Amino acid sequence: MQLKGALFALLAFAVFATHDVVIKFLGGSYSPIQIIFFTVLFSFPMLIFVMIRDSQDGGSLLPVHPWWTAARTISGAFGAACAFYAFSVLPLTQVYPILFAMPLLVTVLAIPMLGERVGIHRALAVAVGLAGVIVVLRPGSADLSLGHAAALLGAVFSAFSSIIMRKIGRAERTVVLQLYPLLVNFVVMGALLPFVYVPVELIDLGASAVVALLALIAMASLVTAYRLAPAVIVAPMQYSQIIWASIFGAIFFEETLDQMTMIGTGIIIASGLYIVLREDRRKDSSNQPVLRSRSRIGTPSAPRVASFLNRDRRKDED
After folding, report:
1. Can you name the residues that pair with 270 across neighbouring β-strands?
2. Are the C-beta atoms of residues 87 and 20 closer than 8 Å to each other?
3. Are 217 and 15 in contact (CB under 8 A)?
4. What is the separation, in whole angstroms, between the first and last Cα of the chain?
């Protein structure tokens, strides 16, 4: 079962990487605002499917925690916009290492927001991982751009959204957690669309639909992976995206993975794996901020993995 879970996780992140490649293609011609708008537009049929499956009796579309839901919704919208922009303007092999800092940021944010304790070992791992991000960015010796800042902000916003999800996820209905982010993305990006709109070719419109479809396929694969295998097996599979980034970048965009990026990426991955393994050793503790966070950056059109897993747990408790 665990092997199947690992394979489904590898499939999920391969599809996510393909999802990001399509975004990068579209980003050469369109603003991230326009890409997100049409991607979310094509995602509403998927939301209807989620609403049909969410058969909780007597449920309301009003959130139980309105302020936290609003904070998560806004954070998710900003995170998606930042990630889409980063994928559009930076090489894939530079975006992923920065986004890999998300587990480190989740560990840090869990201290003030969830009251969790982080020991010296994980604190040092976080420090080492953030040093790896600095190695990738190479301030002073490489040209930093808005794309690098966007990737880092995308990781921060996604980590913040994941922490909020942990805080309120079990109390809120799945449909509430999906509806509000989609609506806000649709309304906000729609309001900004006239300022950046470029006439869309039919093939590019189809590509926007493909982005939404790939997000759904990847999410479904990831949900299956978490049902078949523990998080300690599934979570590290996200780092396989750097392999796909190297392959896709070389084939489609003539990108190369330079030595310093490789070193920084290795440091980030090593620190992330250490944190995951360290948390897994504390199976009887609730102090597992990374293993219990299952969000993925840059997919505003896909239902959250944790929402479906929370729903399964609620069914088991009934």
Report:
1. none
2. yes
3. yes
4. 25
The token pair that represents 257 in the structure block: 């993975």
Tens digit of each residue's pLDDT (9 = 90 or more) over 91-142 = 998 899 999 888 888 888 888 888 777 778 888 988 999 899 988 887 766 6
Tokens representing 128 are 């080492």
Sequence length of the chain is: 318
223 Cβ partners below 8 Å, 6+ apart?
305, 308, 309
275 touches 104 (CB < 8 A): yes
For residue 311, the tally of other CB atoms under 10 A from its CB is: 20
Residue 84's alpha-carbon distances to 27, 39, 74, 129, in angstroms, are: 8, 11, 15, 23
Give CA separation, 274 vs 246, 263, 268, in Å.
24, 17, 10
Does the structure show a pLDDT above 70 at 264? yes
Asked if residues 32 and 192 have their Cβ atoms less than 8 Å apart, the reply is no
pLDDT digits (tens, 9 = 90+) for 46-102: 767 666 665 555 566 788 888 988 998 888 888 888 999 999 999 998 899 999 888
CA distance 305 to 295: 7
271, 124 contact by CB (below 8 A): no
Q: How far apart are CA 250 and CA 92, in angstroms?
A: 10
Axis crossing angle, helix 32-41 with helix 2-27, rounded to the nearest 10: 130
Phi, psi of 142 (to 5 degrees): -135, 155
Exposed e or buried b for every residue in 133-164, given b needs 16+ CB within 10 A?
bebbbeeeeeeeeebbebbbbbbbbbbbbbbb
